[in-house]
C-alpha cells in the first residue's frame, strides 16, 4: 500500500480509507491528536495507535526528559493505547510508573488511576480495581476543575461495572445511575460517553435477570449513538448487542433483521479489528435464529414412502 503522507510503498492500513508508515502516522498523531479518521470516520487501528504513540513518547522523552509534563502526557497516551490493544501487563506497568512518579499534574494522575483500574478489571483483579477507584472518587469530588467532573463520571461508571461483576447489585445501581444522572444533567455531555454508561446499565439489568429492561436500555443507546455517531461500524456493533437482548425477550424476527443489517455493515469494514472479531459470532447467532425448527427430508427410497 502507498502511504497517504509520503506516498511511498510498504504502508499499512490505519483505517478503512488510508494507509500510513508508522513514522508518518506518528507525525499525524502529534500534529492533530485525532483518534478517528476524519474521512471514513472509523477509529484508527489499535496496533497502529500503539506503535505511533510509543514512537511519540520516545521522541518526547528524548527532547524533554522523563519528568516533563509533556512526556508524562505522551506516556499516558501510549499506556492507554496499549490497554486498548490488549497489552494489559505493559499498560499496567506504565500507568503505575506515572502514578508513582512526582510531581505530576493532578489530572494526569487521576486519568492514570482510572485507566489502571480499567486494566485491573479486565485482568480479573476486581477487588484491587474497586479499592483504587473508591480512594480516587473522594479526591475528585473535592476538586473543582472541569476535568475532575468528567473523570468522576468515568470512575463512577467503571466502579458500577465492577460491582456488577462482583454481583453487588445495590452498589452497582448506585454508581451507574449516579453516572447517567450526571451525564443527563449536562447539556454538553458527550453522546459516546452517555452510550458507554447506558451499555453498562444494560449489562447490569441483564446480569440481574431483567432482560426486558436490558433490551430497552440497549434500544435507547442505539438511538442516541445513531443520531450522533458518523462511524456506522460502531452503531452496527451496538446493534448486535441489542439483537442479542431481543433474542432473550423473544423478539426473534426483529433480532434476525437487526443481525442481517449489522453483518452487511461490518462485512465492509475489512480493516476494523472490532468488526473482524464480531463477525464470526454474529453469523453464528444469525444461523441459530433462522434455522428451521425441524429438518425436512424428501422421500428418496421405498421405505420413506
Q: What would you say this structure looks like, in words?
A:
The chain is mostly helical. The chain has a domain at 214-289. It has 13 helices and two strands. The chain has helices at residues 22-32, 46-64, 69-84, 88-100, 106-122, 126-142, 146-165, 169-184, 191-208, 211-228, 232-248, 252-267, 273-290; strands at residues 12-13, 19-20. A two-stranded antiparallel ribbon has the order 1-2. Strand 1 (12-13) and strand 2 form a beta hairpin. Helix 3 (69-84) runs antiparallel to helix 4, helix 7 packs parallel to helix 9 (191-208) and helix 12 runs antiparallel to helix 13. The chain is globular. The model has no long low-confidence stretch (mean pLDDT 88).
Quick summary:
This protein has 305 residues and is an all-alpha fold.
**Cα-based radius of gyration, to the nearest Å:** 22 Å
Estimated helix fraction = over 70%
- How many angstroms separate the termini? 61 Å
- What string, H for helix and E for strand, traces the elements in order? EEHHHHHHHHHHHHH
Low-confidence stretches: none
Broad shape: globular
* Quaternary structure state of the chains depicted: single chain
Percent of residues in β-strands: under 5%
Instruction: Give average pLDDT, whole number.
Output: 88
For the sheet with most strands, the description reads: 2 strands, antiparallel
Map the helices and strands.
Layout: E1 12-13, E2 19-20, H1 22-32, H2 46-64, H3 69-84, H4 88-100, H5 106-122, H6 126-142, H7 146-165, H8 169-184, H9 191-208, H10 211-228, H11 232-248, H12 252-267, H13 273-290
Antiparallel strand pairs: 1-2
Helix pairs in contact: 1-2, 2-3, 3-4, 3-5, 4-5, 5-6, 5-7, 6-7, 7-8, 7-9, 8-9, 9-10, 10-11, 11-12, 11-13, 12-13
